[in-house]
Amino acid sequence: MKSMTKLMVVAMLLVAALVVAPAAARTVSTDGANVFVGEENLNLSGSFGGYDRLVHFSDYSAKSVDKTLTVDANGNITELEKGIPTGPYYVFKSGDNPATAAALGYVNVQTPVATLDIVINDASRKDSVNGKSVTKNTPLAFKLGNNVDADVGAGINIDLTLPGGGVTNQLGTAVLKFTASGTTVYKPISLNDAEAGTYTAVAKWAKTSDFYGKGFDSNSVSFDVATKELAITSNKDSLVRGNSFTVTITGEANTVYYLYVKDAGDLGTSTYPRMIAQNGVNFTTNCPEGANAPNAKANVTTTAGGTRTVQFNTDQTTKDQSFTIRVADPTDVKGKYDDVKVRIEAGSVTITASGTGTYYLGEEITLSGTNTEASKIYLFMTGPNLADRGVNLERPGQRVKTGDAKNFTTVDVEADDTWSKKWNTAGLQLDAGSYTIYAVSADVDKDDLSEAKYATTSISLRSGFLSATTSAATVAKGDKLTISGTAQGNPDNVKVWVFGKNYYGLANSRDLRAEDVPVESDGTFEYELDSGDTKDLAAGQYFVVIQHPMGENFGVTGNQSGWISGSSTSGIVPVKLTSLQAPAAASALINALDSPNIPDTYVKLTFIVDEPVITIDPVGTKEAGSKFTITGTTNLAVGDTLIVDVTSAAFQPGDKTEASAFSGFGGSTIVEKGDATNKWSFEVDATGFKPDEYIVKVESIEAGKTATALFDMIEATETTPPVDEVTTPPAGEVTTPPADETTAEPTTPPTPGFGALVALAGLGAVAFLVLRRK
Hints:
This protein is mostly beta strands. The chain contains four helices and 55 strands. Strands 9, 11, 12, 15, 17 and 18 form a six-stranded mixed beta sheet that branches. A six-stranded mixed beta sheet has the order 20-28-27-22-25-24, with no helix packed on it. Strand 54 and strand 55 (705-714) form a beta hairpin. The N and C termini lie far apart (167 Å).
């Protein structure tokens, strides 16, 4: 009994050894034979006798060696590892130099490759269903390719992972095990008894193969077995109309099915979702079911994978409700079908206007908002005495009408459902007032707004206006004058016309010039007649006309030759202003601007040009060493700079060893606003000044004007200090200091008495008189 048991154990061990034993050594004796990376126990023999290595050249012509495989004493090839260069390896004898010796032959080293696919098992076997859904009735076949020669004897199996997670090498009666032969093989499979779900497959080299576990397995493929023979799904349960959705049919491969929107009652033909022209969809259909509406039914042919995805479009005419999409088998319409519901929802429209809602005619207004209902937005407006149904924003005289899209102001909606319109109100035939802007999802007017989505915004338009002033009523020749103001209504420029005696805008010329002055974003403008302009102007009164275009273009324009004119429809007769005296020229310009056919507005200003004047108020006599202020008046502009010099009038020969008797003080001051005329002042510090007669010089560099004045400076007068008052007590009283107080002895030497001070002053006066006489 024990002997029998031992025999059975030995037998089992032999069987196990046969299962896991490596493949027998393969002999390679043919020149050019294939050798595969990962092979083991390879032996070279025959015509390759006397070899010891295999050499691979990165550049055969240059004999550049980049890899050498060792052949041991028994002829076994080693180092056939993953990652080595593939291609021809040349056989060399021991001691041969591969750069110069002739090779005995070569072998072709390749990487073993296995590829896997799952295809429709029809005559062509070309249609892959990898990653697709199929039904149980779909005939399939695994397509296995490899490059390993049959004499290698390598086994390869398809590991199929089932929906439940199990792995098998057999599906039904189909065994998924093969021997590599270097060719492509097909293995048909049946899904009749397959459970629904996802199947994944990989071709793996068998454990008995030298390639097992070395990373040479195939790619992975998968397919889904549908739960139904015929099914339909949608990529969206609901959507806003104006957008699209798709449905996907799963059925038999390359099979025709009916696809249609079920009849939803008396909705009208334009209210159903519509299929678009696309591959696999044929609108020439015999489908007896479905809504009788354009492109609401079709014959649809599935792909080789048994599926077909079909797009439906909607727009603002599509009814906002749920629709049922059905796919049916033409051979069994009542029995084999599937449905999916898709809800169509109405979109929305919004509109806002930039800014505060109040604008001046001529301004640019940005209108913006959203539109989830359609790909365009339709704009119109209503207001005082405009057409009741609305008018075009950019052509207020053009009425809008439902169904006539060209009468509306239209804007394309962006991909993110937003829209924006810059509306320029310049030149519009609109009066100031309140207006309502409508943004609508369709080309419908105010009476038909119930047929679309819309939103409104209200705005107030005001007439543009102009205000201006001069920096001074009087300007001195050579001084600057600023004309500034505000021009509402968003004009790019205003025109400034200046007239004076024999002056039309250019000094020393009878040419006509109207200056275009830019208007800033806040509506302000500024024009300056600088010192170079005013110095050439004759003294007298000047007239200024500031012109606002109240639109994109000026209604009255002039040229250098002196002519002014309006547009051909303005009715203005051209006038040559330079042929008229200046007052008459200004009046002719104003008359033209007052024409009812001219939208421009204007303001009038005047200013006077005077000769520059600087006055110095009497300075009076000042004491040396004192501080005092010199003042005066001027007709120069506030903010102008005056140069002030105060210098000694003394001029006499002197000894070079003596200190100079000359003294002075200088600086600048700014003209300030005065009551009747502008004023200036200058602080003088006379410290170190000598008694003398002094000259004050005040100069304006820009105006080229100078004024002078004289004043005397005398010696400073000494002030006599007050005499201490002695208080005598009344008779009979004795003033006694407190017992605890003592009188301190003086610690400083006595100062000269009052008589001495008077004497010193007398000597100083005598010395001064002597010096003056000299």
